[in-house]
Amino acid sequence: MRVLSTLGVIGLVVALAFGAASTGAWFTDTEKVEDSVLTTGELDLAVGTGQWDFSVGPLKPGNTASDYVTVGFLMVSNTGDYDMKWRGYITLDDNTGNLRDHLVVRCTLNPGDWAGSSSLTKYGPDDALLWTGIPLTDLMSVDNDYFLIGPAAEPFYTGHYAVYRIDVRLKETATNSQQNATLQADLNFQATQDNNTGWTQ
Is residue 152 included in any domain, yes or no? Predict the structure, then answer.
């Protein structure tokens, strides 16, 4: 048994020595691709308000669909190089008479009464009522789920656009304190790549 073990070790050493000493002749060639350049693209969310009336009024209290007044049309476009997700939220500049607590909002995607056009591909269906009767205050949170596109449904693809009609209604709960009241607000947008699990870098 001891002899067999020794022979096995010797055989291994010989094989390794032969492999290390073995050489071969092979034709070879080398090439080089010079000046390779890697570039990043651009994330670009374009927002247009071509049919936006910033002086809507006078509003009157009501509780039916006919009491909604159109604030305007908002066209959002992905003109960058990446599929994205985006969200929007409202910040107030002026809120006399505490008007914000008495307004509800309705939003329609790609409404038929939009008179504009785009060379990009339309995102989403036509005349789709996204939400209605939403308190304006719910849209003031940056984390609201109303002004949110992708990735819950699908990303906002590059080369696509979408149009949103925003309507507001003064709730029937409004009192005399809301007479001659004014609300001035900004609609803010954030966008990031659709595969970003958050909203920051």
Answer: yes
